[in-house]
Amino acid sequence: MKFKSLETLKTALTHTSYANEKGLPHSRSNERLEFLGDSILGFVIAEELFKRFPENPEGSLAKAKAILASEEVLSRLSKELKIGEFLFLGKGEELTGGRERDSILADVFEAIVASIYLECGMDAVRKFINFLFEDKYEKAINEELVHDSKTKLQELTQRKYRILPKYSVVDQYGPPHNLTFIVEVSVNGKVFGRGSGKSKKEAEQKAAQQALRRLEIENS
Fold it and tell me: What structural domains and CATH numbers belong to the chain?
């Protein structure tokens, strides 16, 4: 994979806080690339799931796609690739742990996907994505990638509050064969997240993801 120019990659690594601090135009931050990369990533993942699992219904494929394109999975990939070390961040983001912040790392991953597409073409970006996701497609179909949010939240709350998060089903609706569950997760009596799903397990994972995002903002 050979880039025609490294400027697009540099833009992909430039957080809006850095662009604002340096007085750069908005187009020099990675937000536009993130927008494009999100769609490209979603397409490649959907295409690969469609090919690999011809017997799975649309709902199963959609759920796996959402897992694979989630902030949790993308930020983990960025950490494995040590992308945070190469980010251009404003001083405020730098001081508040921006290089390790999941939301920033997930966004920059999408921006890098877009930069590869623009500089190297669709075949190159497809190879890049499928190489990194090779061991994740089947796990996503089997919902084996979604356990990390609850584990991560538990580790965070034990470290910060010395208490475990509590999950409660606050509502459920739909016919008995197709129920949707609403779950809230609270820490020390305070609700931090809410999620819905076709199983209690799925709803708990979504509630944990929301709680992690909220705690990340509060601690920034």
Answer: 6-145 (1.10.1520.10), 165-218 (3.30.160.20)
